[in-house]
Amino acid sequence: MTAAGKAVLITGGRRVGSDLARTLAARGWRVAMTYRTSREAIERAVADVEAAGVEGLAVPADLADPAQAEAAVAAAVARFGRLDALVNMASVYRKTPLADLTPADFDEMVAANLAAPYHAAIATSRAMLSQEPIDGIRGKIVFFGDWATERPYKGYLPYLAAKGGMTTLATALAVELAPSIPVATIQPAMIDAPPDLSEEDRRAGLEATPLRRFGSPADVNRLVVYLLDETDFVTGACYRVDGGRFLGDG
User: Fold this and answer.
1) Phi, then psi, of 176 in degrees rounded to 5
2) DSSP state of 228
């Protein structure tokens, strides 16, 4: 499944998603992006997509609301005529120590990290199933998970529970949508350490990563390009892009 004017919907992703939008646009993909709070960053990425000579679209949506998820997908289909890929990247990552947990912490993490990708995937897959296949493929879906759902660390219980559910969702959806919509999951570790990360936490993260560096958006997005453009024979797979963090000490 090569690009050649195909259309992708990327949910969220201020940094990695924006880099992916520019990367795919350079390969000829038309790009729609959703945002909930990051309007400026997403609109800037879409402007870059259009500057590359392909169509772009920014759509405001709280994807945890199924009606808004359906509307966002419908807007992309209305603009492009079809959707050939969904990259479910939007996420909320926040520390929630066990001693301080509230029911609202759980609700927030499930809404952002499980309900939102679920509703986006269901709405997109229904649109894909109604369109004509290209080389036998009606579309592709890529989820962004977290390596730590298989090797949890402390302080992020609701987040990890939601992300673990999302990984199961992706695997189950691969079964439901075969043979015409491949589904895969990518589990990154830290990509470009945030500017507010303390020097102590930065050092600890590097020491726990066998490759001794943090990832870059390109480290992840080259894999997305492979899944979208270079193979039609991957579904139900889960890839860790974590510098070996899964093998580290914490």
Assistant:
1) -65, -35
2) I
**How many CB atoms lie under 10 A from the CB of residue 104?**
10
Instruction: Quote the longest CA-to-CA distance of the chain.
Output: 53
One-letter amino acid identity for 240? R
Q: In what order do the strands lie in the sheet with 7-11?
A: 56-60, 30-35, 7-11, 85-88, 140-144, 183-188, 237-241
- Distance in angstroms (rounded) separating the CA atoms of residues 16 and 191: 8
Nearest to 186 by CA among 13, 24, 64, 29: 13
pLDDT tens digits for range 17-40: 999 999 999 999 999 999 998 899
Per-residue model confidence as pLDDT tens digits over 116-160: 999 999 999 999 999 999 999 999 999 999 999 999 989 999 999
Name the pTM for this structure.
0.94
Under a CB-based contact definition with an 8 Å cutoff, are residues 244 and 211 in contact? yes
Question: Cα–Cα distance between 118 and 173 in angstroms, integer?
Answer: 10
What value does the CA radius of gyration of the chain take, rounded to a whole number of Å?
17
Domains, the chain, ordered by start: 7-242 (3.40.50.720)
The C-alpha atoms of residue 87 and residue 19 are separated, in whole angstroms, by 13
Q: Are strands 7-11 and 30-35 parallel, antiparallel or unpaired?
A: parallel
